[in-house]
Automatic annotation (TrEMBL):
Naturally occurring in which organism (per UniProt): Cycloclasticus pugetii
GO molecular function: amidase activity; hydrolase activity, acting on glycosyl bonds
GO BP term (any one): cell wall organization
Acetylation listed as a keyword: no
Key words, A-Z: Bacterial flagellum biogenesis, Cell projection, Cell wall biogenesis/degradation, Cilium, Flagellum, Glycosidase, Hydrolase, Periplasm
Pfam family, one: Glucosaminidase
Cell compartment(s), UniProt: Periplasm
InterPro entries with a match to the protein in the record: Flagellar_prot_FlgJ_N, FlgJ, Glycosyl_Hydrolase_73, MGlyc_endo_b_GlcNAc-like_dom
Protein name as catalogued: Peptidoglycan hydrolase FlgJ
């Protein structure tokens, strides 16, 4: 079965759904294509359910398992499900096509086999496909962050440098980046799993000439949260992200008022929100809440940063 990436993504696209309906009422070739696409989407839904069940077995953490974290986990699971299904190694979609009377040309499907015959083989295929996704990201692009303390340890030197240029408290930058990335656990990635290193959620404007990553995000309009696809800046390192954040604020006139309030952590973050840095009406309050947590409020380190 040969299904393109754009076709496999239409399960969340109403226009794509309308196209599928049209194909389903067309000629034999179009009906076959529609059947294959629907089968692949069903396989994706099945994988999402499986990943959700796996996550439900992991105990929640009051520290990082907030609503925003769960939302990013959901987006990540959506992308993983799509990627696994696109690889075409699981066999479920092909079996559905076969059961519905369609024609299947795949080594994953064997004539006269039913759903029960695929259970054991599917588990092995899913495990293998998950391993492929895991190893798809180049090791040189990976900076594992295992805990909030680990996040602070890795980001503190860059935060100090950026804070000095802006004249703000370095802890404020750590709190903002912790909010934007879920303490480094949910940094945006591109389609092949490479990290964007984007710590501050800066979008790629028309004048941006660097790398980008397109992901689903939450935007607030009239106080109502909505999921939207947006394009964000991507960097080669966390240091580049901090550097760009400094330039972004200093070169953008809308944030000049916030930069006049750097002597006050509350004044600075509220100034960012007032200038439209984020659409979340509670953005500043969330940063201040993180800033008051034990990890940051009690943070005292030497001028040289954390000890290695």
């Amino acid at each position: 079965m040969n299904i393109s990436g754009s076709q496999a993504d239409v399960y969340a696209d109403f226009n794509g759904l309308a196209q599928l309906k049209a194909k389903a009422t067309g000629g034999q070739g179009e009906k076959q294509e529609a059947l294959e696409q629907v089968a692949r989407q069903f396989e994706t839904v099945f994988l999402k359910m499986m990943l959700k069940s796996m996550r439900d077995t992991v105990p929640d953490s009051e520290l990082i398992d907030g609503e925003k974290t769960k939302f990013y986990e959901s987006m990540y699971d959506d992308q993983i499900s799509l990627d696994l299904s696109k690889r075409g190694h699981l066999g479920l979609a092909e079996m559905i096509v076969q059961q519905m009377g369609g024609q299947v040309k795949s080594e994953n499907t064997v004539a006269a086999q039913g759903l029960s015959d695929y259970r054991e083989a599917s588990v092995r295929r899913i495990q293998g496909a998950l391993q492929e996704v895991k190893t798809a990201e180049p090791s040189s692009n990976v900076t594992a962050i295992n805990s909030p303390e680990d996040f602070l340890h890795k980001m503190w030197p860059q935060a100090q440098q950026a804070a000095q240029e802006l004249g703000v408290d370095a802890k404020v930058l750590l709190a903002q980046s912790a909010l934007e990335t879920g303490w480094g656990k949910h940094i945006m990635r591109n389609k092949i799993g490479q990290s964007s290193h984007n710590l501050f959620g800066i979008k790629a404007s028309h004048g941006w000439e660097g790398k980008t990553v397109s992901v689903q995000t939450v935007e607030y309009e009239n106080g109502i949260a909505e999921k939207r696809q947006a394009t964000f800046r991507a960097y080669d390192s966390y240091q580049e992200s901090f550097n760009d954040y400094v330039q972004f604020l200093q070169q953008n006139p809308r944030y000049q008022q916030a930069l006049t309030q750097v002597d006050s952590n509350e004044g600075f973050v509220k100034g960012l929100q007032k200038a439209g840095y984020a659409t979340d009406p509670a953005y500043a309050q969330k940063i201040l809440s993180i800033l008051n947590r034990a990890q940051l409020s009690g943070l005292t380190v030497p001028a040289s940063g954390f000890a290695s």
